[in-house]
Amino acid sequence: MLKRRNNRRNNRQNNRTKPLRVRALLALAVIAGSLAIALTTPVRLGLDLRGGTQIMLETRSTPTTDADAAATDRTVEVLRGRIDALGVAEPTLVRSGDHRILVELPGVSDPKKAADVLGRTAQLTVHAVLGPARTADGATAPATDPAKERVLSDESGQRLRLRAADLTGRDVEGADARFDQQGGAGWHVAVDFSKTGQDQWRQITARAACHPAGDPQRRVAIVLDNKIISSPQVDPSVPCGTGIPGGTTQITGSFDDTEARELALLISGGALPVPVETVEQRTIGATLGDAAIEAAAWAAGIGTALTALFIIAVYRLMGLLATAALACYALVSYAALAALGATLTLPGLAGFVLAIGMAVDANVLVFERTREEYAARSRPTPRSALTAGFRGALSAIADSNITTLIAAALLFAFASGPVRGFGITLAVGVLASMVSALVISRMLAEYAANRPAVFRRTRVTGIASTGWVRDRLLRRDPFLMRRPRRWLAASAALAVMAASGILVRGLDFGIEFTGGRLIEYATSTSVDPDRARTALTDAGFPRAVVQSSGDTGLTVRAENLTNADEATVTETISNLGGETKKIRDELIGPSMGGELRRNALIALSLALGAQLLYLAVRFRWFFGTAAVVALAHDVVIVIGAFAWLGKPIDGVFLAALLTVIGYSVNDSVVLFDRVRELLDRDRTTPLPRLTNRAILQTLPRTVNTGMGAALILTVLAVLADDTLADFALALLIGLAAGTYSSVFTAASLTIELHPPRKASRPRPSRFTRRHSSSGQNVVSTSGETPR
């Protein structure tokens, strides 16, 4: 008998420890795999962090060629040859959609050369010269038949009539830049024709040699992209009708070594199948990327330390274990980014730092639920309370993370450039936080709860008490939902106040949405923006927008700023600020700006609609409607605050706004999950009282998770540069607005939208009850009161 009893006890103990062993093995496998990836595979940094140039090209159709996906693919191959010849290390060249090509050139700080080489169509043609295009009175004579001849200016500006092309770039076998030391011709380009091209070249020069020396018709015009780059005369030694054999010619001119090599590169690489246009261009100096990485690293370190101290102070031992799981989360998310080959951009780096604060959310949900379970059980143990806490918080964790993943997916689908990297980082961070909380943190917490020392000292766990915030709220029991319409009126007043900023101050849209060019300079001495604005007006740029950036920096923004205009602007700023260095240069074409504006509106609309649909399916329609109205309230407040502050509305702000939507709904999800749970258990208490009870029960979680994110965002806003500081500021405003709206706006609106509850009487039992008058046992199976 004793042996059988011991066996049963051992079996129960094995059943309890088996899940813990499985989770421990899984956690060790995840940590070991992440560590191996992190040590062997570096994360690829975006150009905004390591410095370089990013160019977005868009193919254009011609009357003869349609710019479809096939033409774009052929264009990519031609451009790849040109980039390889430039000698850029680790370039990236990919097709984006049917009509766009993304080019990334690390280390290229001057985009002018790269843009000129990539943007030129390089349509090479060779023409016989029919004579001058000017009549006796000096007027330009039009081409008699545009299909058979054309009129172009030569190197000296003389207008020449050219016959239709006899040779094209397809007849060119290769080109090479050479320097003639003996002949004194200097740098020139030697062009080699193919076998077919050799015959055509001999015939062209044979006809030209029949005209006397000095006659324009003895010249042969070499045209590149509708411009005569060379029109040499056939040497007098070449007899009429014989021509130049060998199929090789020289393009001479006032070339330096760089120009000669670029021309040879364009001719050798061949012509682009279709023309391309630069619709977006970004250049970031390496120093700016290094400063951003350093600021983000400090923010991550200090913010994580403050968050860890806060969590340990609130949850004691469990908080300490959650901090250890948080370190594992950082490792797992870094390894996931490296394994996926994702590019870490500047907004993505901010998302990585933010996700550290968001990773605490799941742990707080579990620990607060564990506290409730511990307080509700008659003979609680830390292990049983933890098991119930993880089980009870699972649905709220899943719902809140799914809503954030929706926002991340929309960012990846509709954002452009570095902001798209933020969506990837945010999604990876959310998934890694679930692994950290549900696997690693749970394994550590359950292992600690099984220790005899912890079992004897339950208060050290941090889950043996409900916390002073919850105790004080439940002791006072304030009825916050007594008059929900007053809260709705207060929310409407806040929204109107914020919206008035949009009407009064307007929105300062960045170049992503308006198009144009933005250049950021670092000067040796401080320059007053008004003084720089006056100097640029005198230089011919009256509509340039000049703003200070940091202590000795300036940003200049203008529309239709060409490379020549950029040189003039740089010279003007240099005259004012001494030694001037260009650290950022962004160009957005009008078509790209319009597309980004449309995508921003679509992303915001889909974000609200997707949250409404998910919450309506997951909960009920009035819950979803209340949450979406609260989200719209938060969006208006964040946009209005930036309008009042005069902050830019750009792509990074859009990323912050979508993050606010995903993060803000988390509080509403947790609250609605608790309201739904109370509705299922209690069908008699009025809805305002039930909702008020749910608010009081979930408010500690809202405060604690908000503190974790707020600490990191505050440090990021203080230490980071203007871009990341504005990003952190938008999230801080959204965090405060979301905390308020989930408690007061969403809850109040739920009460107003919820159908009236019918007061239900306690249903008679289906089992045996004692009749009050006769004392007989009466069995009722229908639920009706027995007669």
TrEMBL record:
Biased composition, class Basic and acidic residues, residue ranges: 146-156
Gene3D superfamilies: 3.30.1360.200, 3.30.70.3400, Multidrug efflux transporter AcrB transmembrane domain (1.20.1640.10)
Transmembrane segments: 295-315, 320-342, 348-367, 388-415, 421-441, 487-507, 600-617, 622-645, 651-672, 703-721, 727-751
Chief site of localization: membrane
Entry GO CC: plasma membrane
SecDF P1 head subdomain domain mapped to chain residues: 154-274
Location(s) in or outside the cell: Cell membrane
UniProt-annotated stretches for the region Disordered: 136-156, 755-787
Low complexity: bias regions: 136-145
Gene Ontology terms, MF aspect: protein-transporting ATPase activity
Entry keyword Cytoplasm: no
Source organism superkingdom: Bacteria
Pfam families: Sec_GG, SecD_1st, SecD_SecF_C, SecDF_P1_head
GO terms under biological process: intracellular protein transmembrane transport; protein targeting; protein transport by the Sec complex
Domain called Protein export membrane protein SecD/SecF C-terminal: residue spans: 277-447, 570-753
Quaternary structure, from the entry: Forms a complex with SecD. Part of the essential Sec protein translocation apparatus which comprises SecA, SecYEG and auxiliary proteins SecDF. Other proteins may also be involved. Forms a complex with SecF. Part of the essential Sec protein translocation apparatus which comprises SecA, SecYEG and auxiliary proteins SecDF. Other proteins may also be involved.
Function: Part of the Sec protein translocase complex. Interacts with the SecYEG preprotein conducting channel. SecDF uses the proton motive force (PMF) to complete protein translocation after the ATP-dependent function of SecA.
Protein's UniProt name: Multifunctional fusion protein
Gene name of the record: secD
